[in-house]
Amino acid sequence: MKDLLSHHRFFFLLAGSYLMLGFFLVSITSMGTIEFFFYKNHTPILTFYFKLLNWLGDGMILLFVLPLIGLLFSVRAMLITGGAVLISFLVVSLLKNFVFPEADRPLRYFGDAVIPYLIDGMERNMHNSFPSGHSAQAMALMASFSFVIRTKGWQLVLLLLAVSTALARVYLMQHFYVDTLAGGTIALVISLAGIYLYKDKSPWDASLWQIVKTKGRI
C-alpha cells in the first residue's frame, strides 16, 4: 500500500486537503454564504468556463474519455477509471434517491425571490441535492486517471479540473457547496480502492492499441 501511494500521494494529499478545508469552511459559515458568493459574482468569462467544465460531470463524456484512456494508456487504467466512475455513480444515486430524497436544491431551498434567475441552459432542479453526482464523477475520473499521470504538474491539473467541475455546480446554483464536497469524498475513496485492487502488474497494462497491433500477444 505504501509503494502504491508513493505514485499517487501528491494528488490524494492535495485532494484530501481541499476536501477537509471545504468541510471546515462549511462548518463556520451559514447556509448560502458560499453559494451566494459565487452567484453574486457572475461574469461572462466565469460563466463560459464553468459551463464548459460542467460537462466533465456528464456521463456522456465517458463514451469519449474511457476508450481514449484505453487506447493511449492502458486497459487497466480504463477499467479502474470506468469502475470508479460507475461505482461512485451507484453510491451517489443510492444516497440521493433513498437516503436523502428530500434534500432540496438551492433554487427550492431559497426560492425564486432570492434566486431570481439561473444562467441560460441550466435546469430548474429542485430535489435530490445531496450528494453531487457531477462532482463525484469528475473526482472519480481525475483521481483514477492519476494512476497513469504521475508527474506532479499534471496531477495538479487533474485536481484543478475536478475542483472546478465541483465549483461549477455551485456557481450554476445546481448544488450547495457541501453537496460537492460529499460527492468528491465518496469518489476519492472509491478511486483509491480501485487503484489498490488493480495495483499488481498484469497484461492489462498494455493499451488497446498495443493489443490490436500485436493481435493480443502481450
Q: Give the CA-based shape.
A: elongated
Name the helicity range. Answer: 55-70%
Largest sheet: none
Order of SSEs: HHHHHHHHHH
In total, the number of strands is 0
Average per-residue pLDDT, rounded, comes to: 88
- Beta-strand residue percentage: under 5%
Describe this structure in words.
With 218 residues, the chain is mainly alpha-helical. The chain has helices spanning 2-28, 33-39, 44-53, 62-72, 75-99, 106-110, 133-145, 152-171, 177-197, 208-213. It has one domain (2-211). It contains ten helices and no strands. Helix 1 runs parallel beside helix 8, helix 1 (2-28) packs antiparallel against helix 9 (177-197) and helix 7 (133-145) runs antiparallel to helix 8 (152-171). The two termini are 27 Å apart.
Compose a concise summary of this entry.
This protein is an all-alpha fold and 218 residues long.
Key descriptive features of the protein:
single chain; 218 residues; mainly alpha; 10 helices
